[in-house]
Fold this protein.
Amino acid sequence: MTLPKFILGDNTEFPNAIYVVHTEFPRFIINLENDEVEWFEDFDAEDQEELETETENAIKEATAFYDNEVAKYDE
């Protein structure tokens, strides 16, 4: 199965939360309501520098993905 890079998610138990799932390395879920990140990866100290760069870019991309998806609903 081929997954998209980002998937939107919500849950009625957390009505204000807006989740974006990032399916590529580093895999994570971000709650855009409060910018909390839940990781699906285990990282070594050696991965720290790459992780910081990749994470910053991936979170920016996740936020842009959400903004683009919401804009499509408004059309």
